[in-house]
Amino acid sequence: MKRFERLEQIRRMDPYENASEIYRLSAAYEFPWDFTRALELALYRTYAVPAIGGLLAETAELTDRAQKRYDDTSLLLDAIVEHGFGSDQGRTAIRRINQMHGSYDIGNDDMRYVLCTFVVMPRRWIDAYAWRRMSRHEIVASAVHYRTLGRHMGIQGIPATYEEFEACLDAYEEENFAWDEGARRVSDATLDLMAFWYPRPLAPLLRASTLALLDESLLRAFRYPPPGPATRAWVRRAVRMRGRAVRLLPPRRAPHFARQNWEIKGYPNGYRLDELGTRPVPGVRGCPMRHLDGSAVE
User: Fold this and answer.
1) Is the pLDDT of residue 147 over 70?
2) pLDDT higher than 70, residue 291
3) Inter-CA distances, 265 with 34, 37, 77, 197, Å
4) Average model confidence (pLDDT) across the chain
5) What is the DSSP string of the chain?
6) 160 partner at 20 to 30 Å CA-CA among 56, 139, 150, 167?
7) What is the pLDDT of residues 95-142, one digit of tens each?
8) Count of structural domains, the chain
9) Do the domain assignments include residue 140?
10) 115 is in which domain, residue-wise?
């Protein structure tokens, strides 16, 4: 297989009718490392919204059980990518996601914003750092894939196009990013988790490198001192060089899904999809959120 042969395959597909298949080819074959990093950043961004970061601090899901939360989120979302919305695994993952969110008082605008991060951040990351930019087919397919997920979750007012997802994300962040003490604890715990994956002496370097990849709005919301221009330039150049190196490699012949990531450490003996995720925490922000009709929980 030639380096751009899979991209040619994607361009022959209908980005609306075959959206999830195109998304799977992009995430599991073309950019598995980049999608992992981009979706980590997508979820991390949401902590800068006090309504989201504060809730996560109250539940202690990302301060006391950061690895489990990371694993469960990755595995549930990726089961849908690997097996499809109509599969038993996909339906189980969606049901578990809805049960978790239904246990807390989460507003529709917050849910829609999180969905926007899943669409927008991979495109921004890949265009900046990966071995090639995303094609228009991949961009459209990503938006359609997450519109489908949003409908299964009962989210209202889902953007129709990538451009609308991006505009929704930018407007929401401008209005809602703010300092919150609990959200800062969640952010610190997440940075500590990422450093934990590597040898301990590298922790300060990894934290500084991660901060260098964040934009100014995130740094302000969490009140992190901005990295120096030299550090920021060095880190971003290093990630771009990694993408250029990947471009020289032969194309991936087997898919790589999130369950294969070495960062998933909480289930050495395997797991069941219907047992992943959180359970209601008594007294936290009231429950349930808003009851949706049965079509939202499949």
Assistant:
1) yes
2) no
3) 19, 16, 17, 9
4) 91
5) --TTHHHHHHHTS-TTTTHHHHHHHIIIII-HHHHHHHHHHHHHHHTTSHHHHHHHHHHTTTTTSHHHHHHHHHHHHHHHHHH-TTSHHHHHHHHHHHHHHTTS---HHHHHHHHHHHHHHHHHHHHHHSSSPPPHHHHHHHHHHHHHHHHHTT-SS--SSHHHHHHHHHHHHHHH----HHHHHHHHHHHHHHHHTS-GGGHHHHHHHHHHTS-HHHHHHHTPPPPPHHHHHHHHHHHHHHHHHHHTSPPPSS---GGG-TT--S-TT---GGG-S----TTSS-S---PPPGGG--
6) 56
7) 999 998 877 778 999 999 999 999 999 999 999 999 999 999 999 999
8) 1
9) yes
10) 14-271
Q: What per-residue confidence (pLDDT) applies to 287?
A: 37
Residue 291 maps to a domain: no
Has residue 148 been placed in a domain? yes
Tell me if the pTM is above 0.85. yes
Residue 280 lies in a domain: no
